[in-house]
Amino acid sequence: MPDNQPGLRQRKKERTRQAITDAAMAMFLEHGFDNVSIIKIAAAADVSVQTVYNYFPAKADLVFDEADQITSDLQHAVRHRPAGQSALSAIRGYFASIPARVGDRRPPEPTPRFRRLVRNSPALRAYQREIFARFEQALAAALADETGAPPDAVEPFIAAAALVAVFRVNLDGRDSDTEPPGQRVERALDLLEHGLGDYAVPPAPPPAPQSRNAGSARITAHHD
């Protein structure tokens, strides 16, 4: 029996955490992030205010409650990928694994309501930028370790920033978008995989039309 106690305690913590998150998100989606207080969330989840803060030190953590796990998963995907696989392919695999990873806890991709929630709150937009910066730092550190690059090297940071930008594609969609976020992610990864060297290169202007007078002048000159 004692061996089972830690498991029971952990499951109770997970249920409490999920209850707080569910209550918070329902209220955020209905009233807006900035219009819901921690006191109201605690009452809806039937816990104390201090309990909410014990699980979520910042109010925005209730929206981005999986940020720490995602950071860990990204590093793991890059550090433990098979020999011969690129970091980009590892991140592609990470996105492909999201549906199985989240199960029934939440939709595998951000819903339009979730994107509107973030878009309509300056606090959430700012916090989201902080999260992206944490993702970049974590990936850049993993890539620098792997390649032996110094911590301030350009290459790991640029690679990490490009890969993390794919998350923005997944989160920054608009309600008018007809393309599913998953397809947007694939197109973003394809662009990175093929490189930017040939992207958005303007076509050369067509040759100027030759005037008839110029042609006649050359013919006359030839006969002379």
Outline the structure in words.
With 224 residues, the chain is mainly alpha-helical. It has two domains: 11-63, Arc Repressor Mutant, subunit A (Orthogonal Bundle), CATH 1.10.10; 66-198, Tetracycline Repressor, domain 2, CATH 1.10.357.10. The chain is built from ten helices and no strands. The protein has helices at residues 5-31, 38-45, 49-55, 67-79, 87-102, 112-119, 122-147, 154-171, 181-194, 212-223. Helix 1 (5-31) crosses helix 2, helix 4 runs parallel beside helix 7 and helix 8 packs antiparallel against helix 9. The model has no long low-confidence stretch (mean pLDDT 87).
Please write out the topology.
Blueprint: H1 5-31, H2 38-45, H3 49-55, H4 67-79, H5 87-102, H6 112-119, H7 122-147, H8 154-171, H9 181-194, H10 212-223
Helix pairs in contact: 1-2, 4-5, 4-7, 7-8, 8-9
Q: How would you briefly describe this protein structure?
A:
By secondary structure, the chain is an all-alpha fold.
